Amino acid sequence: MKAGLIMRHDVMSILHAFCMIAENHSFTRAAAQLHISTSALSQNMRQLEDELGVKLLNRTTRRVGLTEAG
Known about the structure:
Blueprint: H1 8-24, H2 27-34, H3 38-52, E1 57-59, E2 64-66
Antiparallel strand pairs: 1-2
Protein name: LysR family transcriptional regulator
InterPro entries: LysR_HTH_N, WH-like_DNA-bd_sf, WH_DNA-bd_sf
Organism: Salmonella enterica subsp. enterica serovar Kentucky
């Protein structure tokens, strides 16, 4: 990750959120379990993907799946 773009204390929470999405195959269910908005969760995942320079999630209207990199 590029230094400073994701604060060090946020890294674990963002990675935990990624795992919740992967387990639930859903931003909505993961956000509910994490007690955050779906929008905030989506922004965090886009930020993570941008910083890593790779797409981690395949998003569809019904389901979320992992890419090969994810």
